[in-house]
Amino acid sequence: MASQLQTGIAAGRLSRDELADNFSELHAPMTAHEAAVAADRCYFCHDAPCITACPTDIDIPLFIRQIATGTPEAAARTILSQNILGGMCARVCPTETLCEEACVREAAEGKPVRIGELQRFATDILMEADKHPFSRAAATGKRVAVVGAGPAGLACAHRLAMHGHDVAIFERLPKPGGLNEYGIATYKTVDDFAAREVDWLLAIGGIDIKYGHAFGEDLSLEDLKNQFDAVFLGVGLGTVNDLGLGSGDIAGVASAVDFIAGLRQASSFADVEVGRDVVVIGGGMTAIDAAVQARLLGALNVTLAYRRGKDRMSASVFEQDLAASKGVRIVTNVSPVGVIGDDRVSAVEFQYTDDDLNPIGDRFTVPADQVLVAIGQKIETAGLPEMDGGKIKVGAAGRTSVDGVWAGGDCTAGGEDLTVTAVAEGRDAAEDIHKALSA
Q: Which of 269, 331, 349, 372 is the most buried if burial means most Cβ atoms within 10 Å?
């Protein structure tokens, strides 16, 4: 075992066997027997609250009944007809604050039906059978441009392809999937599942992904509108917010998003560098994922610092508890006021705050040789439709201020930064685009 006393940012703090064990799957898949037992707990409610709580409106009682009656492939079709990325969502959705929190069993017993795991059980069976449950309609001759191969763009493209339209997806990165490929904790989606799910989705045909194209660089809205019958923008949020403490030139301070992406794309966990004393600043899922994975890579001390109280963190209680169980120290009601270090970070200075961010009490410092910043992202691209609060303003079904242009996912105002929400927005925009093209 490599020594954890090694100072500074370094790779190989743990042995390859330890790393493999640390990054094994968070939840093992259900067996057929476990799925049958779990499905039997469902009341199959009329007007089930779990459906309302699901952003993609999956008929949850129906698919669970189909599992209970021994037809998991039918259950998968029920799921995928509403959420074509149902396999990934089963792995990464915060079901504990969505469908499972609304479950009648949760209200009555404090133990909901295991909806997320049942969803994975069904979708995995269908995907492993190498079956695509949908087919393309007759070609319409219409062409649609989708900018961004993340969850919103992929869901939109798939639904448009089902309706017979030809879709060109323009993606700036070398792989599709967006945050599913680059931004999800590695232990939540092992065995290259994100890439395999995209390959399976593309099997419907009619979708061409063009890599190395970025909106605002070699793509403009005017050009896309001239070349295509409709445009969908799923550009995500490409720029990370800065701490604003003049720490940009200090080595060891980096974006948590980049840290997670580097880990996701590494050929070996042993090649990923991590500090001995890591500070993560933020209170969302990205912050939790970065903090937990820093610990799993062998960081000795990991502190997650959030400026408000625990109840205000956007990361779910489940995720907070997971971080604590892995040895992450969560410190709340503190704001960073300075990054200490000349060429390289050595500590972060914090100020205690109340929930309105007013400074209270004394300041203190936390030793750090690596600081990961996860305080949100923003769009910095010119030429977009009308904006609202730094994101694209959308109306019904993702219509923007520009005729013939729709948008969805993290880049739009008012939404939640969740894969399942992005899928719903991409799907609904596709249906509206189809309606407009068919008029």
A: 372
Residue 114 near residue 38, CB atoms below 8 Å: yes
Residue ranges making up the domain that contains 58 = 32-128
Q: Which two tokens stand for residue 294?
A: 């820093």
219-225 — which CB contacts under 8 Å span 24+ positions? Answer: 219/147, 219/170, 220/383, 221/383, 221/384, 221/385, 221/402, 221/405, 222/383, 224/145, 224/147, 225/402, 225/404, 225/405
Tokens for 11? 């790779």
pLDDT along the chain (439 residues), means of 10: 64 96 93 98 95 97 98 98 98 95 95 98 94 93 98 98 98 96 94 96 97 94 97 91 80 95 96 97 96 98 97 94 98 96 94 94 95 91 90 96 97 88 98 97
The identity of residue 213, as a single letter, is H
Q: What is the DSSP annotation of 301-321?
A: EEEEE-SS-GGG-SS-HHHHH
Look-up of token digits 């037992």: 37
Q: Quick check: 313 and 407 in contact, CB under 8 A? A: no
Q: Could you say which of 104, 128, 152 is where a domain stops?
A: 128
| pTM exceeds 0.70, yes or no | yes
The answer for residues whose C-beta is within 8 angstroms of residue 194's C-beta and 6 or more apart is: 88, 177, 180, 181, 184
Q: How far is CA 101 from CA 43, 51, 110, 117, in A?
A: 15, 11, 9, 14
If you count them, how many residues does the chain have? Answer: 439
Number of domains in the chain: 3
Query: Strand, helix or coil at 119?
Result: helix
Using CA atoms, how far apart are residues 388 and 412, in angstroms rounded to an integer? 8
Statement to judge: residues 370 and 250 lie in one domain: yes
